[in-house]
TrEMBL record:
This is GTP cyclohydrolase 1 type 2 homolog. It comes from the Bacteria. It holds the Pfam family DUF34_NIF3. Belongs to the GTP cyclohydrolase I type 2/NIF3 family. One of its GO terms (cellular component) is cytoplasm. SUPFAM superfamilies: NIF3 (NGG1p interacting factor 3)-like (SSF102705). It comes from Pseudomonas guineae. A divalent metal cation binds at H65, H66, D103, H220, E224. GO terms for molecular function: metal ion binding. InterPro entries: DUF34/NIF3, DUF34/NIF3_sf.
Length: 252
């Protein structure tokens, strides 16, 4: 069964409330391909490796979290950007990308999906009074040491995390997938035992250590694999089309 491309795009835009979220890139259809869709290939980033895999899989749409045309980037279509766009346009494949709308969504969002993977019960936003916040706060069913929680993260995500160990047991957790290390101070103010994100900056260590809070950087790619899978599955069910998630390895 096939569905019209613009019907698929319209439903994804509506479901994620994409038009209402200010972002650093255009959300939705970034590159237009063939007019009908039978198969979606999803992945974290629209890298050349993912595009090549999508061509091999005979995809009609590539659905990603990290697409193209970021604010402040060089707009010239040269080098890597030319090769990527040539792959899409030459094979008549559409590129559908959602950044912040996919982080914050309450059902398929990266943050709620990561919580489900790690067994964290979501309690609410990291900053209840900030409508732009993307981080969440939640709790574990049973308290555990920071080292035990880090081993749990490694087992689930398949990647050894960076751990800065704090003062006590872990029960209350704050997190923001991807490059959310800048939210550590808000998490500390909210009274978490541990803050988890994808990346770390030099000052993150000091914020964690001097406040006695544990910190985990589990990988930008590794923490953001689950939202796009959930969105692809939703669209596949909604329109009775095929969906294949392809995980292109990225250690960062």
């Amino acid at each position: 069964m096939a569905i019209a491309l613009m019907t698929l795009v319209g439903e994804a835009d509506r479901y994620l409330n994409a038009a209402q979220i200010s972002d650093y890139c255009p959300n939705g259809l970034q590159v237009e391909g063939r007019p009908h869709v039978r198969r979606i290939v999803s992945g974290v980033t629209a890298s050349q490796a993912l595009l090549d895999a999508a061509v091999e899989a005979d995809a009609d749409v590539v659905l990603v979290h990290h697409g193209y045309f970021w604010k402040g980037e060089n707009p010239c279509v040269t080098g890597m950007k030319r090769r990527r766009l040539q792959t899409l346009l030459g094979n008549d494949i559409s590129l559908l990308a959602y950044h912040l709308p996919l982080d914050v969504h309450p059902e398929v969002g990266n943050n709620v999906q990561l919580a489900a993977q790690l067994g964290i019960t979501v309690e609410g936003p990291l900053e209840p009074d900030n409508p732009r916040t993307v981080g969440l706060i939640g709790s574990l069913a049973e308290a555990m040491t920071a080292q035990d929680f880090a081993r749990h993260v490694q087992q689930v995500l398949g990647r050894e995390p960076l751990l800065v160990e704090g003062d006590g047991m872990i029960r209350r957790v704050g997190w923001c997938t991807g490059g959310g290390q800048g939210y550590i101070d808000q998490a500390i103010a909210a009274g978490v035992d541990l803050y988890l994100t994808g990346e770390a900056s030099e000052q993150t260590f000091h914020s964690a250590r001097e406040n006695g809070v544990s910190f985990i950087a589990a990988g930008h790619h590794a923490t953001e694999r689950y939202g796009v899978q959930a969105l692809g599955d939703y669209l596949a069910r909604r329109f009775a089309i095929e969906h294949l998630f392809i995980d292109c390895p990225n250690p960062i």
